Amino acid sequence: MRLLLDDLANILRPRTAVSVAAGLTSLLLFGSVASGDEVADGGSEHAVISGDLADLSDEELESRVASLVGRLDAGKGNAQLWQYSFQGAWGIGIALGTTEAVLTNDRDKRVSSIVTASKATLGSLRLGLWPNPGRLGAEPILEIPGDDRQALEARVRAGEAQLLAVDHRARSRKSWVPHASNVGINMAGFGVIAALGDLEDAAISAGVGIAFGELMLLTMPWRGEEDLAAYRRSLGNPAPVDPKPSFFLAPSHRGAVVGVRF
């Protein structure tokens, strides 16, 4: 078995490790941007859910602000716990990987530790650049000064934009993109360790990394979906139904083509 592992490791070249390592950052960006980790813009004249607010009374606006503040603040604690717990876990990974890489005399362990620290750095960078919007709670609403009509409308716009952003992030955990990115980053790390270090270490590092990444994705706060749906219902504006994947058959100049709609 050991000879088989050594033979497989010898097939991989050091230059392969360099190429694979270069793909880590692109996979990180792909997993974040393609899954739509953007925050909704509340700066337009129309609210993203209510639309034109001109016909609403001040009392109706105040009611919507109160509803938005309550829903957003209710999910704030869980989002902060998730955000800072995993941010701290990535920090520990960076510290442990860097320390072992510096102190060990084992070349294979050093390679594995460097990859561990690198993956933890990417994970920490991702959470830093694209933090969970739910951690802010109702802050985007409460930071708007004033008590006049203009301030009320601005709070509704900001609150609905924030609620939509929290919902969007919650839904991203169901997308295949971040899961594929997680597997891809860890398999890239596997390639680096296997090429420059020990194949068994590579397998362990990839397995632990994938499991931790999936834990982070699957425990992402999901309350935002329920809050947005409930808010829409309170306005008599039910959420649109997400289109389900479907297969189709279409003619082509060479015969027919089979495709899938998302």
Explained architecture:
This protein is mostly helical and 262 residues long. It has 10 helices and 2 strands. The protein is 68% helix and 5% strand. Helix 5 runs parallel beside helix 9, helix 7 crosses helix 10 and helix 8 packs antiparallel against helix 9. The radius of gyration is 24 Å and the shape is elongated. 34% of the residues are buried.
Give a summary of the structure in a few sentences:
It is built from 10 helices and 2 strands, in the order ααααααααααββ.
Strand order of the largest sheet: 1-2
Estimate the global geometry from the Cα principal axes: elongated
Extended strand count = 2
Distance between the termini: 44 Å
Order of SSEs: HHHHHHHHHHEE
Q: With helices defined by DSSP (H or I, 4 residues minimum), what is the helix count?
A: 10
- Determine the fraction of residues in helical runs and give it as a percent range: 55-70%
Q: Nearest-angstrom radius of gyration?
A: 24 Å
Largest sheet: 2 strands, antiparallel
- Count structural domains: 1
Beta percentage is 5-15%
Secondary structure class reads mainly alpha
List segments where confidence is low: pLDDT < 50 over at least 5 consecutive residues.
1-27, 29-40, 246-254, 256-262
If you average the pLDDT, what whole number results?
82
